[in-house]
Amino acid sequence: MSGAKLVQGNEACVRGALAAGCNFYAGYPITPSSEIAELMVRFLPDAGGVFVQMEDEIASLATVIGASLAGSRAMTATSGPGFSLMQEHIGFATMAEVPCVVVNVMRGGPSTGLPTSPSQGDVMQARWGTHGDHPSIVLAPSSVGEVFNLTVKAFNLAERFRTPVTLIYDEIIGHTRESVVFPDSVDVISRPRPNGDPSTFLPKAAPPDGVPPMPAFGDGYRFHVTGLTHDERGFPTTDPGQAGALITRIHDKVTNHQEEITEIETLMLDDAEIAIFAYGIVGRSAHEAVLRAREAGIRVGMIRPLTLWPFPYHQVGEVAAQVDTLLVAEMNLGQLIGEVERAAAGRSEIVGHLRADGEPITPTDLVAAISGAGAVRT
Amino acid sequence: MTDVRDHLREWAMPHVLCPGCAHGIVLRSFLEAVDEQEIDRNRLAMVAGIGCSSRLVGYVDFCTLHGTHGRAPAFATGLKMARPELHVVVVTGDGDGLAIGANHLIHAARRNIDITVLLLNNSIYGMTGGQAAPTTPTGAVASTTPGGNTEPNFDACKLLIGAGASFVARVLAANPIEMTRVMVEGMTHSGFSFIEVVSDCPEYYGRYNGMGGGADMLTWMAGREVGVTGPLSSKRFVNHVPSSTAPPGMATGIIQREERPVFTGVHGEGSHGP
Amino acid sequence: MSDDSSGLLLAGVGGQGVILAGMIVADALVRAGHDVKQSEVHGMAQRGGSVFSHIRWGSSVDSPLVPLGSAEVLAAFEWAEALRWVEYVREGGAVVADLRTIVPPGSCTDRRSWSIRYPDIDPDLLGRRTLKTRIVDASSTAAELGNIRAANSVILGSVAAFLDIEHVHWEAAIERLVPAGTEAVNLTSFRAGCEVVEASIPPRPADPDGFPGPHEIDIRHEWCKGCDICSRVCPEYCLEVGIDGELALVDAEACTGCRLCELLCPDFAIAVSPPTENVSRGELVASAGDPP
Predict the structure, then answer these.
(1) In this structure, is residue A83 part of a structural domain?
(2) Which of A20, A285, B20, C104 is the right S-S partner for A152, CB 3.0 to 4.6 Å?
(3) How far is CA C61 from CA C10, C66, C70, C90, in A?
(4) Is residue A242 part of a domain?
(5) Higher local confidence (pLDDT), B249 or A70
(6) Helix A34-43 to helix A9-19 angle, to the nearest 10 degrees?
């Protein structure tokens, strides 16, 4: 492979962030994400960015949001316990519509849990971790190369839709080294900017796509940013009409653009009777398991969402309509399987292959599951 | 003569604070300080947390961020490091800054980032209905200390000096001219400046402790002052200081001032860092 | 021996060097062979109060105090002091008056219109046509010569024109009594005072009879919450919160513009602005109750 570099998943995240124009990082040490901070401080400053190590994860994301309001493309990285602390500001960034990227390198939980064995136990927290109704954009890479690509995408989506975007992968991907050919450049999308008269500027008046233009503090537009429900002027209101309109808009700007956000990999589904639903590191085992099962003459395919949230109900539903059985494999005790059931709506049998003991799901496990042998539970 | 009310978002007024709450006096003194320094309001970012004092930022026509409870210093850190040319001022309260947000406050002080923190201390949680705060004096009544507070209270200035704040001052809301003077000193200080403003809460602290209304509490406050004579000290207030709630005198003025390196984040060669 | 003395009065404000000037005059007179007595009052020097020095001289002097209407010369270091003491000057006597104006605290019984208490700089106000007057700008002259504090020596130079004392005695007294190191500038100032021409009197204000009216208190009732802080802090009782909680301006005329109400209003509901139009002296005097 010409130009290939052997890099770790966490390093690919840093490279992706820098390629995407990240110029601000704030974080707090936690295994298995700490390499991201350690590499950021080596590369980001020389790329013209700013690095700061904060006193905790709450402060880390608050600082990232502050930097983003000042016009930076900003991110932080953590693992489960820190991700729990960041929920407060994921909610704030959602409400205040401040672009930022949060990387969660998952380890076993709950609480301090299994430092540091892999897990996919945070995928529902990534959807519903902060309080209140809110949309979520969550991306889940399966390889080091995908970590790079999806980090770039996370920044672009965050800026495009003025919302926090979570990149979520487990400890194995974070610490795996793979040969990757990185592109020379990537497409970079920036947040929409206002160009009107600052004196009549309404910070939360949105065009039809639901994403209001966003100036930075210091650009000459003076405006108020709050986590309280607010009106188009950005000022707090308890008016039910205004409150409902705001919450609906911040949902719709994501859900109405799902085609821009959703990314799915499928494998050998055309004639499949069984489909494996897997994501993240398990997607790699599923890929191998499909190839092995095909060799054994079993008609099996795979659907692997790279975008976990918003959940691709439509695409999963189409697969469910086609196959007899959907085998949901995840490294938790059943989190996205419920969403698969909602998507299938009874059109196929749903079987779970679930484990939450700090050990990965292997291709052998999945081939056995496909063959209907043991270790399967719904 | 300019009118500091030009800095208000008039359409948002009147503000939500209770009658006699001194927080508005503090805001006015701050706006006088802004005028005195002729700060470009496009370059002035005010960052607040949650609580009565934090609501103030909604009413001023600057770049204003009403963040989350206690986290204002962290938001401010991001703003200042990403855009060093901004004047960044944090407005926080005693609950916001000294309970849930104390960690962020002391670390901002330790780093010596070039921001100014105004901590409006009204000795109680006002927005939530008068619960005891880390600043509620021992013995004082709050809705969660109906028999009198049994905990000792923080001295915010000592805490911040201990944390390494390079500028620490205490002023009284009863003393607006001195407030403005000290705010100018703090804002022009290079590095982290912390100003505790002794404010009041007539609605809860005053009512629970039989201290009268806003004017009575300003008198009480001025009577606690040590070392500086406020312009109100000779005015015709009726003294109303219940002995059971009269804490010892407070030192006011600039308590700590030193020059030490200002932290601006980790920057690379040729970037906008030091 | 009967008293055949002449009198001289020096009057000014604390800090102007009146006492020192008196000592110099007395010393010069002694050197010229006179019997001299001098008396002075300087109790209010630290607060800008009036300071004066009586000097009498002749072959034999019984009392140090200059009787009303008998002074040969009045040297006033400040304009209002000239008016205050002019009655002490005899018919045909001289007044040396400095243009300097220092408003005495006692003139400010009505703080909104302090200027009403301070007289115009107008030689006619000295009253009698028989007086020889010499109006000087000693401070400017001394400042030009290098030390504004030598203004008293400039005035002495002007006084010398009206007294029959040889210059050697003046200069010897100055050298002996002024602070060490300032001899030269004081001598230069004295000589300049001897030659000084009549200072030009500054033009009168555009509206000599007009004075600032009371400050204007603007209440923004829609922002006021009726907390009563303003009414409690107003030293002049201008404001009152009614039983209905409504703030009212009950005595607009009494406002002195101290701005305490404005600075301590938590609701930005009060603005105090300087007077926008002058009112006549008569109106003010009438409203103040007691004539100046």
Answers:
(1) yes
(2) A20
(3) 18, 11, 14, 18
(4) no
(5) A70
(6) 40
Residue of B nearest to C263 (CA): B176
Distance CA B192, CA B108 (A): 7
Compute the nearest-CA separation of A229 from chain B (Å). 12
pLDDT of C112 higher than 70:
no
Do residues A14 and A150 both lie within one domain? yes
Structural domain of A118: 5-180
Q: Count up the domains in chain B and report the number.
A: 1
The reply to whether ipTM tops 0.90 is yes
The verdict on a CB contact (< 8 Å) between B81 and A24 is: yes
This model's pTM is above 0.90? no
Query: Within an 8 Å CB–CB cutoff, is residue B207 touching chain C?
Result: no
Is residue B29 less than 8 Å (CB to CB) from chain C? yes
Half-sphere exposure at residue B10, Cβ-oriented, CA atoms within 13 angstroms: 8
Q: Residue C43 has what pLDDT?
A: 56
**Segments forming the whole domain that contains residue B90:** 4-255
- Whether the per-residue pLDDT at A284 is higher than 60: the answer is yes
- Report the CATH number at residue B164: 3.40.50.970
Nearest chain C Cα to B213, which residue?
C227
Please, are residues A303 and A316 in contact by the beta-carbon 8 Å criterion?
yes
In 3D, which of C8, C35, C202 has the Cα closest to residue C96?
C8
Decide if A111 is inside a domain: yes
Q: How are beta strands B131-132 and B124-125 bridged, if at all?
A: antiparallel
CB B122 within 8 A of CB B189: no
Say how many domains are in chain A. 2
| Structural domains in chain C, sorted by start | 6-195 (3.40.920.10), 214-276 (3.30.70.20)
Rounded-to-10 torsion of CA B123, B127, B129, B132: -30
Summarised one tens digit per residue, pLDDT across range A87-106 is 999 999 999 999 999 999 99
Q: What confidence tier does C3 reach under pLDDT thresholds 50, 70, 90?
A: low
